[in-house]
Task: structure prediction
Amino acid sequence: MKVLKGWLIVTGFLMGTTLSGQDIAPLSVEKIMRDPNLWMGTSPAAIRWSEDSQVLYFNWNPDKNKVDSLYAYAVATRKITKVGWAEQKKLPDNGVYNRARTLKVYAKNGDLFLADCRNNTVQQLTNTVAAESQPVFSGDESQVVFIRDGNLFGMNLANGLNTQYTDFREGSKKEDLKGNKQEEWLRSDQLSLFEILKERKEKKDAGEVYTKLLKPERPREIYLGEKKVQHLRISPDLGYVTYSLVQTPKTGKTAIVPNYVTDSGFTENLTTRTKVGAPPGSYEFWVYDRGKDTTRKVPVANVPGIYEQPDYLRDYPERDTARKQKEREVYFTGPFYSPGGKHAVVVVRSQDNKDRWIMALQLSDLSLTLLDRQRDEAWIGGPGTGGAMSGGNLGWIREELLYYQSEESGYSHLYTVELTTGKKTALTSGKFEVQQAWLSNDKQHFYLITNEVHPGEQHFYKMPVTGGPPVRLTTQEGAHEVTLSPDESKVAIRYSNSNTPWELFVAPNTPQLTLTRVTESVTEEFRSYPWRKPKVVTIPASDGASVYARVYEPVRSNGKAVIFVHGAGYLQNAHKWWSQYFREYMFHNLLADKGYTVLDMDFRASSGYGRDWRTGIYRHMGGKDLSDNVDGARWLVENYRINPDRIGIYGGSYGGFITLMAQFTAPGIFAAGAALRPVTDWSAYNHPYTANILNEPATDSLAYRRSSPIYHAAGLKGKLLICHGMIDVNVHFQDVVRLAQRLIELGKDNWELAVYPLEDHGFTEASSWTDEYKRILKLFEEM
Result:
């Protein structure tokens, strides 16, 4: 069989050999894994435009250096040049534009800068030891408002005057004797007995009043006690400051990860995170009225559904009854002010992540008016909906019209709501996801990235703000990552398909995009091998659903099959663009060359398929996500004549978890499994990822018992390989140590554990990757 030189490199990486050949220089496994650009090339990344829209900047590494460098592409000349350090320091960072988009303010290295977009010049506004951050323009654009040392300041752009708008202080204000009755009585008695003391007090009080009248106006002193202040924002008219007060929990242990192989020769502990269900912090949302010099907490008692408890508590009736009348803890994000400053909108999210409210906030009286409520008995999620401390994709089309994204229909779509009437309008609809949406500069159009054509493709669209069918602007099969120039005259697109890594293109922003290629990143070695385009298929699941999957077909089958399970749970890999799992992609090509049929499924909980797919694992991880993979194994037997006794399964992180559940709870389906850095007990994983899906261990122990592999280890039948880094700060090494002890006590002898003392969750060392894949290949070759 003829083997091309590109494949020799990949085979060498997998088999742990040193490569040499007539047309390529010798490359060790260590070099290949440490510097992938030696054999594959480095795709351009971090795409951004110059302020005048004439130059495109991106990170790249065509010279095969140890780190990427910044490059510039001049649109007019089509020339690429490397950007030196001196020039890089002068380049603006991301920031906030004024309404005319002629000025942009931004923070860089702890100082403030003002870019004039008309002539591509930059003015430095601060040069201080203290770090300035989060600059914005005031409503009249005469000032730049920013944060320094945990307080809000304003800088007048005309004269440079700095004004402090808040005065937050740690601890508590020293109280006088008021409140102690005995000491108050003694003070009053002293003043009534001695005239001189009384006269002195009166003179002192009068002097303080006079001094106060002469003293310059200063912001109110706000003492935080044991709390921390976050999310400082000021209204466009500078009249109100909103902020969150956060009380960190006093209980709750932080997990320790021991690091055994260190420079010091001693074991050193890495402090990592708490575990799911640890006591959360409490959050309060406050408004400081600068005119009235008052601070008030925004009440949530009248938020619709604030007392509603999740349905799962019906399985625990005694707990459900006890909690019915308690306000749920919430987070506030915002306010988001309308262009003219008339309206303020906040996003309120329940701490259990089952409710998201978009509400108008009246700053003068703290009243909240509901604009949209999204409730999900599983958890709020999907593209554009934001996380716990994020408002998601939300903004203003005009003074009275707000846009936002929601999964209300079952798929993430774009909506508007009128502030005055409360009327909601769906701008997009259908069984697809709006994965990104942003407003044009003139606020007449939306630009969209959706998967309407196919769940495994991402295309670029333009749509009027009034809605209507979006106009598709890209045509090539695969995915398109789009960066518009500041003046929106040009578009930069990072494009890839399933067997071609990401490359950079530019085009005029016109209805028919004519792409000009900017980069050529892959090496000759990479191009010399005919990389497969995996076939994207749908597989019928046992409950009637259709599961999208990739299939790598061999030229001549050996009767064996391998199923790969992607990580993260909420991630997509059965698509038509270049996979982030490039090592696995190469491994699957190698397996196919050796006669294996390889299946890579977007099982239940994968991203890209809407709300029901996303939440299909609620309260039972290792349920439908596992049964989809089991159905995939049966489909392989029926459609590819695979020997049912010679099917393997493997994956990392979430994929490692599914591999364990497959070996423990689906006996006879998989002859062998490789669980890489797997979660073995969900009660040991983090918050909020796990709490979204399984709630909390103390309140929903049933969900954790049926979802955690360690409780099902007695069912192990086929061969099992476990690989785990010992300094993994994501899925802790403790997970597999506990599972190993369980397997020992159960008397199981069909498993092995490979440990990697210097590896975190994602491996970095060539020797580790090589060792791991040699073990995985050996496992499947022997089944």
Q: What stands out?
A: Confidence is low (pLDDT under 50) at residues 1-34. The longest helix spans residues 195-214.
